Amino acid sequence: MLSSLSMLIYSSIILVWTSILLADMQIKITQGINTAYPIAIIPFKYINNNQYDIFQPTEDIASIIANDLRNSSKFNTIPVEHLPHQPDNISDVIPMFWEKLGINIIVIGTIQENYDESYIISYNLIDTSKNPALVITENQFSIEKKWLRYIAHTISNEIFEKITGIKGIFCTRIAYVLHTDHDKYPFELCIADYDGHNQISICKTHEPLMSPAWTPDGNKIAYVTFDSGHSKLVIQTLSTGTINNVINFPQHNGAPAFSPNSKKLAFALSKTGSLNLYIMDLDSGEIKQLTNNRNNNTEPSWFPDNKNIAYTSDQSGKPQIYKINIDTYNSTRISWSHTSNQNPAVSSDGKFIMMVNRHQGKQNIAKINLTNNQEYILTDTVLANSPSIAPNNTMVLYSDTNTNITNNVTTSTSSLELISIDGKFRAHITGNKNDLRFPTWSSAYFHSQ
């Protein structure tokens, strides 16, 4: 069942923002699924204990699990119409049927409706290479109707981790800025499940919004707003909607980033003329300056040790990635390739950095492997921006700007894109025709027990 803390956090967000729930988006895979590991998710058997109730579950559990595993870049889930048979339990599993398809792993499950309209969800992860078939893992959840989708993601996490040894990210959330044609409130800050479902607008304004950043626990978001006529940094509590102004100096205030231990907030200010990095202690409110020069230093991203920050600086003439220690102030250059590199995102294990690479008129997502200092360009586009790494370090979310010319009028729209860290898997988050910019992936998980 859902833990009481997770339920409280998750439900409080839903209760506050239900009135401005937006249309769901979905992930459309464009490359890489054919090379992934095959797995079959059998449609869950529905068991109705109420003979007078013909109500069916509002969510297709098996379909959600299949989509999750497919979206991870690690699995190729077999379409239902290609399944040789659909066993209800392990005694019905015939290994030879699956061997012909080259499938060694299948998932079967049941959805049982109780008299109070709650559900009991059970599943088995089965190894069909054994004869008889072998249950690898199993679990059961008792939940209210509204948590069906959440439990499907939880099952996906358990399956993903059991097979790969890597923690799943299917119960995480993303945030991004939505730009619409709305006359009064063209800018919105939105949050959604990792797959674009349960999209919620948490802030609407007539002035631009930029650079959202999650707290490590996923309870708050810092971002840049221009609603007062100039940029300022605010922190919004998701459960209440309360917005606190935290940084509001003259000129530019931007690029917030919370430390992994939640104790500090890094950001960039131009109150002295050029952009420099600063850190605020969130308990005391004390602010100290990290960089102090006439160059532009911005876009901080914390290393997991809470002591070092990657950032963008043009001190070499063009923007490149540097690393600075917050205690010693020692700074070293990290990136070297091509015209420029900027907008770093440090992985949660500190082993690599994703960044935006500019070269020969193109702006692509690139990776620095910090163990061997090798740099790789992963995309082939014109205006990729704002990389954000999944909490398990397997995927990157970013925005991509497309330019269209109609009747000699040029328009640009940005979309959200997914790519695996090796560049072999790519997907497009669809379902919204508006501008989507500044994506950021929350590191917080909502757990079940």
UniProtKB/TrEMBL annotation:
InterPro entries per UniProt: 6-blade_b-propeller_TolB-like, Tol-Pal_TolB, TolB_N, WD40
Localization terms from the record: Periplasm
The entry's keywords: Cell cycle, Cell division, Periplasm, Signal
Domain of life: Bacteria
One Pfam family linked to the record: TolB_N
SUPFAM superfamilies (alphabetical): TolB, N-terminal domain, Tricorn protease N-terminal domain
Region forming the signal peptide: none
TolB N-terminal domain mapped to chain residues: 26-131
Keyword Oxidoreductase in annotation: no
PANTHER family according to UniProt: PROTEIN TOLB, PROTEIN TOLB HOMOLOG
Role, per record: Part of the Tol-Pal system, which plays a role in outer membrane invagination during cell division and is important for maintaining outer membrane integrity. TolB occupies a key intermediary position in the Tol-Pal system because it communicates directly with both membrane-embedded components, Pal in the outer membrane and TolA in the inner membrane.
Protein family according to the UniProt entry: Belongs to the TolB family.
Subunit structure comment from the entry: The Tol-Pal system is composed of five core proteins: the inner membrane proteins TolA, TolQ and TolR, the periplasmic protein TolB and the outer membrane protein Pal. They form a network linking the inner and outer membranes and the peptidoglycan layer.
Protein name as it appears in the record: Tol-Pal system protein TolB
Annotated source species: Candidatus Blochmannia ocreatus (nom. nud.)
Gene behind the chain: tolB
